[in-house]
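Issue 218. Parser rejects a valid record. Input:
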Amino acid sequence: MEARSESSSIQVRCDKINPGQVVIPRTRLQVWFIRVCSSILIWSCLVQLVAVGELWHPHLLTGLSNRFSGFHSLSIQVEKEAPSLSPLLPPRDYKSNGYLKVSCNGGLNQMRAAICDMVTVARLLNLTLVVPELDKQSFWADPSNFEDIFDLRHFIDSLRDEVRIVKRLPKRFNRRYGFQPLEMPPVSWSNEKYYLEQILPLFSKHKVVHFNRTDTRMANNRIPLDLQKLRCRVNFEALRFTPQITALGHKLVHILQGKGPFVALHLRYEMDMLAFSGCTQGCSQEEAEELKQLRYAFPWWREKEIVSEERRSQGLCPLTPEEATLVLQALGFDKDTQIYIASGEIYGSDRRLAVLRAAFPRVVKKEMLLDPEDLRQFQNHSSQMAALDFMVSVASNTFIPSYDGNMAKLVEGHRRYLGFKKTVQLDRKRLVELIDIYENKTLSWDEFSVAVRVTHEGRMGQPTHRREIPDRPKEEDYFYANPHECFCDKTSCDDLLGGGSHNSTEEAIS
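Output the parser choked on:
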């Protein structure tokens, strides 16, 4: 192998230069510097070219950008799923009447609905909204901030034509400087008249109002159409999960879809639900006592003494895993059905899932499909874990919630918005009657199965109007479960919601 010294190489080059020319030899450092600068310049040009190409035509330079991408597979997934860049809408020009600070309470989906309502209130009252605070004191004790779950920049930018959103209050309104905002919970199920007449005047005196509770603080019905559509816009467009959550959620969906169609079963048989609802069906005496003690440990939960049997007969309890198994079989799902359990830790763990797994061997959870390293960053962050289940549930072929809590309702609303995807709205009051009769041997399996199917013929997520019950908003249909105002551009959606025949039970389940 031939080796050359630096001086000899310089000499060779000098021999080719005309006499009389001044020669400035290049050292290795100079050559290296030139190469680095050239590489940086070329790479910068490529990045700019890809960015401009994506702006002009989202698919023009996809191949080029992918070729030069050396990121991890999750990063590639984010790039594929992220929407193309679009120019920012011009900000709405208005004189702010003050600052609205909100502290959301509850789990992920209760807080999600509350954020939609609070944006709408801020728009109605011409306020500046401070980025909502998430609940860190509830049963789940999740320390996540807004930006840990939702894409904060997108949230602010996508709503700038409606409402001004800031990350924090100006310093002059900081408690450290002696400022005390007015703290209050708005009245539940309120319409725009309440906010205009009762809340807006408070800002002229206090400048900052802090809503310390935000659950169901806006009515379901009889709200102006533009405000209803803004609630939808926040829910379906502005509240986008972070790239990390989105990437892992799409990875989960991709794994499931690669194995065929799947059912997402929101099995809400979890410790907090059983404790606070007082439902102990299927629990031992020791477990029932443990759940009761947990309920008493939380002073903010007013209802302490609850009769489980009464609750269950009224349809106010989540189905047990064993009851859910019977219902799935009666609805026509066979043992080869792939079932994703969208929930946290099932109370009683694997012991309570034994019957379900025996009937449906292809039962899976996210912990079974993903590497532990994928989930490490989400551990002890229940809302971030719930966001993954939310994404899978929305994407599933069929969604079946065992209880109509906040997640069930918001997933149902998303699936309606995406084209009335199949969602089985279980009639739990009727189901527990049928299950008890069947288990008492009074009803044959065939009779039980037919009765279950007939009960749910019109409960498959078909287009329908919300049920209104004046003066009893808790009992009427929830806006976010069926925001029918957002399914069409006209004031009246009668053509969509009233026309057409419903799918048969067999078509809805298949």
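Fixed in the parser; the record now loads. The first strand starts at residue 99 and ends at 102.
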